[in-house]
Amino acid sequence: MRRFNLSEWALANRPLVLYMMLVLAIIGVWSYRGLGQSEDPPFTFKAMVVRTVWPGATAEEVAREVTDRIEKKLLETGDYERITSYSRPGESQVIFVARDSMHNDELPALWYQVRKKVGDIRHTLPQGAVGPFFNDEFGDTFGNIYALTGKGFDYALKKDYAERIELQLQRVPNVAKIELVGLQDEKVWIELSNTKLATLGIPLSAVQQALAEQNAVTPAGFFETPTDRVQLRVTGAFKSVDDIRAFPIRAGDRTVRLGDIATVERGFADPAAPRMRFMGEDAIGIAVSMKPGGDILKLGEALDAETARLEKTLPLGLELHRVADQPAAVRDSVGEFVRVLAEAVIIVLLVSFFSLGLRTGLVVAVSIPLVLAMTFAVMHYFGIGLHKISLGALVLALGLLVDDAIIAVEMMAIKMEQGYSRLRAAAFAYETTAFPMLTGTLVTAAGFLPIATAASSTGEYTRSLFQVVTIALIVSWVAAVLFIPYLGDRMLPEPNALPKPGSLEGRLRRVRERLADRWPQYAGVLAPPAVGGHGHGHEGAHDPYRSGFYRRFREMVRWCIQHRWLVIFATVVAFVVSIALFRFIPQQFFPASTRLELMVDIELAEGSSLKATDAAAKRFEAMLAGRKEVENYVAYVGTGSPRFYLPLDQQLPQKHFAQFVVRTRDVEARERMRGWLMGEARARFPELQLRVTRLENGPPVGYPVQFRVSGEHIERVRELAYQVMAKVRENPNVINVNVDWDEPSKVVRLVVDQERARALGVSTQHLASFLSSALSGLPVSTYREDNELIDILLRGPEDERVRLDLLGSLAVPTASGKTVPVMQVARLESVFEEGVVWHRNRLPTVTVRADIATEVTAPTVIGQIDPTLAEIRASLPEGYLLDVGGTVENSARGQNSIKAGMPLFLLVVVTLLMLQLRSLPRVLLVLSTAPLGLIGVVLFLLVFRVPFGFVAMLGVIALSGMIMRNSIILIDQIEQDIASGHDRWTAIIESTVRRFRPIVLTALAAILAMIPLSRSVFFGPMAVAIMGGLIVATALTLLFLPALYAAWFRVRPEEARGAAR
């Protein structure tokens, strides 16, 4: 029974096929307009922070009594990649990073387990510990950040207007979340001296109690009458700061007003909260994030319109500035990729027109937008948006999606030249190429399968590469067998007939004839196809494979088969040499982003105050003010920047840390600015650590060079870390070598004389509470104003709070109501203690970190440093670890997740090959050609000095599928010829000759389509690797594979001579 022929059906139902093409085109255009656009693909940060506060405890006490207990409990989950923590005086932060291989759907259950397990041990934490508090919201990207500035406006007024703007922006479509950055909490400060209180005979506790009782909200009951319930209200709550000043305090037998014995002022938190400054001015940030699946460009336009309207409503002096503009970055990146896509389309069209002829090439040209439209429709259905990865995948797929169209239309055109009717030619093309094409298409798609199965953050980041390419390849096969026959029937020229002299095709033919006449040595390539033989059968048909070029190529294939062992040996030697040379290719993880921002981290010594950090930030701002390369800059003092860019390595709040986001005018200005910052600017700040980085691509890494030393004893760990740091500094390619914690913090210890303190009625807790209230403030009540709740705090006068030399003379109230100086009950000692204690999986850990100072990649630098640490590793005490982190660790994790998918990839490929070839030897033959593309990959990467990174590795894996696709088509053709009665020798040669054109054209389309993509910083290494590998692999498919087939199956020349007799 004759098998169903889809191409024959398409020509029998032309109106229906035309309708399908039009509908799919319309759906594709509509889908494209509905695709979400963003800078990066959706990405999940699998981290949770568990924060616990224990006021008064040292860093080491927090580490032992709080952090270690939480870490120990979290280890029971088993689903962690790492558990890192830092303990500071009075504060514990535990960062739980989920297993990298966990699926996003599993995270909510894991976060529940983390909360539950930590909750189970809450009762075991020290008395006075507050928390733990949980935070797992790290994935919000605030692509639009605005700064509200105004000279002469305090934070309270700016906050009021910022909240109004927040309310208006929340109504903009696609806005998900808005956060205000750099807010300073308002406070009402009551500054009074204990000495003055003692003189007046007023106990401090009496002032606290009176304020709390006066401003408390207490129900006064109600009257229940026969008709109404009448509520009772008691007045007396503070309505203004003047009411607080006028509040009466009873002093013995007389009354004084609070304002007479204390200073009452309305102000802000002191010490200040982390703050934001824009271009040197204090600001409040308004950070806007987008809903999942939204279009960042449409959101940007809507925000522009709304902020332009809101700016007109602001009072004179208040200004709204854009700090982060992700829509502009996406507009530039999408525009660049659209240009690259357009260039690739033009290149593919030129290849089609020049090699296939105008009208035959036009069939391929029409199929391109049709396949893209179908791809957009499927992407829209599965919720795949346009972003950095999917756009690059579209360009990559463009060179592949025309392959099936070229093979189908080329076969149809050849058969028409040989005298077949259009219907019979289409049917023959389907019968001979449809299923080899399908197998080849699926094998090519399977080349990207390890990306889909990669259970890692890196795999999640690049997964849409597999999705988009697979969609494009599958729909391209559907178009090749369903729509190409219809288009070929309508557009292919009449075989064996000259085009009209005045037509476009005729003029193009004339140009090619002139080029062939001018360069006769290239006539086989430049000359148009010969026209002749007007018969309708095979006998009178023109045979395109009898031209001079094909005769020479036939002789070359025959020579390769005759000298098969020489060809095989040369190929194997080239492959071995390429493996040997591979180690000379620079390695990398992901390249730096092309965005114009520079991140500048300023880190002071551990224990530095926020005021010192603020002063250093202002000095740095003064340096930036005169630089022409800078478009704008924003400073975050005491914390890191909000996540305005998805792969940003976000920093947690730290008082000794400030981060600048410096936006330059262009890439050249960015690089000049980076060089100046790393050179002259760093030299001006010798007392602090200044780090300058570009924005990263891919999952955040932090410092590219990292070595971790872990062990039981902090001092021994630190000693080993210093030895490692000395070795790292010896490498000339690194800069900014440091450890994440080393310097101790200054502490004043009050050694209490317990006997004297008890005699005077002063306890240790009482002394500590007094000092805390005098220096930091003691909350006594809450001042309510509209919807604001403002703390009222008691503290000592300014001279008692800022002068450390007066600490001993502070008057401590006693149980009897009198006061005694601090020095009468305690001795003051200046000492040092750990300012922070870092743990990794419960072990104290010191990380040696460094940046790259030259163009050498991080894996190369780590490869240079790591052997020098062999002596330190050999001398490590039992239980101590020295691990490599940074780029190498993250890259290895990503590569391992890809390698884990290789068995499935091989299983799928072998299964597809067995279904098509039905022969294990032939399957092994095809598989043996897969790694040969490495020869061209190594050659091109070395010649063009392109590093081999994660994206290039994905390209090499995918390349193997492209190579096997061509091998399948050639071997299937050989088997068809043998089945039709040809001897094996002739079948190998003639099949290679007949498959030369489609194999070369499809490879040429894929290679040339990579040229525009090779300029991309992100996809450039992949494009170069595929170009080099495919060039060499195509040549080997046409020359090495026939020789290998002949050697494998022991084909002899005598078979051809025997068949001829």
Detailed description of the structure:
- This protein has 1061 residues and is α+β, with helices and mostly antiparallel strands.
- Helix content is 52%, strand content 18%.
- It contains 37 helices and 30 strands.
- Strands 1, 2, 3, 4, 20, 21, 28, 29 and 30 form a nine-stranded antiparallel beta sheet that branches. Strands 5, 6, 13, 14, 15, 16, 17, 18 and 19 form a nine-stranded antiparallel beta sheet that branches. The chain has a four-stranded mixed beta sheet with strand order 12-7-24-23.
- β28 and β29 form a beta hairpin.
- The chain is elongated, with a radius of gyration of 37 Å.
- The two termini are 35 Å apart.
Write the layout of secondary structure elements.
Blueprint: H1 6-12, H2 14-34, E1 47-53, H3 59-74, E2 80-88, E3 91-98, H4 107-120, E4 130-135, E5 144-149, H5 155-169, E6 175-181, E7 186-192, H6 194-200, H7 204-214, E8 222-224, E9 229-231, H8 241-245, E10 248-251, E11 254-257, H9 258-261, E12 262-268, E13 275-278, E14 281-290, H10 296-313, E15 319-325, H11 326-356, H12 358-382, H13 388-417, H14 422-446, H15 449-453, H16 457-482, H17 484-491, H18 504-518, H19 523-526, H20 548-562, H21 564-581, E16 597-603, H22 610-624, E17 630-637, E18 657-664, H23 667-683, E19 689-694, E20 705-710, H24 714-729, E21 734-739, E22 745-752, H25 754-760, H26 764-775, E23 778-785, E24 788-795, H27 798-802, E25 811-813, E26 819-821, E27 826-833, E28 837-840, E29 843-852, H28 858-865, H29 870-874, E30 881-885, H30 886-900, H31 902-917, H32 920-929, H33 933-943, H34 950-979, H35 984-1013, H36 1020-1048, H37 1054-1060
Helix pairs in contact: 1-14, 1-17, 2-12, 10-11, 11-12, 11-13, 11-35, 12-13, 12-16, 12-17, 13-14, 13-16, 13-35, 14-16, 14-31, 14-34, 20-21, 20-35, 20-36, 21-33, 21-36, 31-32, 31-34, 32-34, 32-36, 33-36, 34-35, 34-36, 35-36
